[in-house]
Amino acid sequence: MARRILWASLALAPTALAARYVFHADATTLFVLSALALIPLAWLIGEATDHVAEHTGAGVGGFLNASFGNAPELIIALFAVADGLPNVVRGSLTGSVVSNMLLVLGAAMIAGGSGELDARSLKLQLFTVLGALGLILIPTIPGLDGSRDRHSLYIVTIPVAVVLLAAYVLITIRNLRIHRHEDRRDPRTSAWTMRRALSLLAIATVVTALISETLVHSIDAFGHAVGLDEFFVSAVIVAIVGNAAEHGGAVVIAHRGNMRLATEIAVSSSMQVAVFVAPAVALLSWIVGRGLPLSFRLVEIGTMAAAAAFATMMIWDGKSKRWEGWVLVAAYAAIVGVYWVS
User: Does some domain include residue 134?
Assistant: First the structure.
């Protein structure tokens, strides 16, 4: 019954788009419809990824889920740059890294309970996030004095972004090689074919991007209506809804008992945002508007580093425990509190 409801609720996506482009609904209505529409889309991406993993194994499955799930994040960021909202972009990137490492990973551990994790793969990706933050300090430190959006900082950002993208390619290749020799069971008889699973992943990603873009255009007015500032909206609300695919998918997959895939999704997504999405947005930003410097506030760098450290401690022994999931979620709640007062 639940699956039928989820399949039927996919109709919320065209409803939200029609409300915006045909009926020109108000911002609050668009926000609610878009947020609801993202729920079944997140389930569909998680479902399709689970079927892909039947053929590829957890490592490649987690990589594909993070890749498809982060496509909307990249698109949302470019729309925000075009709209002249650099602080929203940096805030949403920060929130995405933090929420995936703490909220999504923690929720997956809570939903899945005890289980085996691929500690080697997860550690590699978490250390990569910390390394990326070290590089991002290069344009961040001079940005602490004066405007963070001045052109000179963008010039400094360009080589940093190139190095991050090169590192992403190398790390991804190495990480996929780690999983190349993992034990794989034969796909279950009810598993979708690879073509069907990948086709549904692609379609769901495109629709998710459209819905996310609609939500972002309405979220500013919604934030003003409820009295939330720009940074909190971008770092918490935009980050969560922009990554709804990973959030929902990881929890659903963990609940089914596939903790290796669920944790790969959460951590791979954070790594991709830090090492791929952020530099890609920076390099592409000049096409849609002014160049976007990767010059973050110290509270943003600090919370991302703290999230990576917390996540590393929780996965260090290669075991998932439900109480560790609660610790990660509590850490996320504490960071949200920091964002509230910052």
Answer: yes
Euclidean distance between CA atoms 46 and 265, whole angstroms:
10
Helix (H, G, I), strand (E, B) or coil at 116: strand
Per-residue model confidence as pLDDT tens digits over 26-75: 888 898 898 888 888 877 877 787 787 777 766 676 667 666 767 777 87
- Where in the sequence is the domain holding 267, given as residue range(s)? 59-180+227-341
Tokens 């695919």 correspond to 245
CB burial of 185-218 (b: ≥16 within 10 Å; e: otherwise) equals eebeeebbeeeebbebbeebbebbbbbbbbbbbb
Total structural domains in the chain? 1
User: ∠ at Cα 221 (35, 250), nearest 5°?
Assistant: 25
Helix locations, 144-229, DSSP H = 151-178, 194-226
Rounded CA Rg of the chain: 19
Backbone φ and ψ for 229, nearest 5 degrees, come out as -80, 170
| C-alpha distance across the termini of the chain, in Å | 44
* 317 within 8 A of 120, measured Cβ to Cβ: no
Summarize pLDDT for 196-206 with one digit per residue, the tens. Answer: 888 888 888 88
CATH number of domain containing 92? 1.20.1420.30
The answer to whether residue 109 sits within a structural domain is yes
For residues 306 and 308, give the distance between their C-alpha atoms in angstroms, rounded to a whole number. Answer: 5
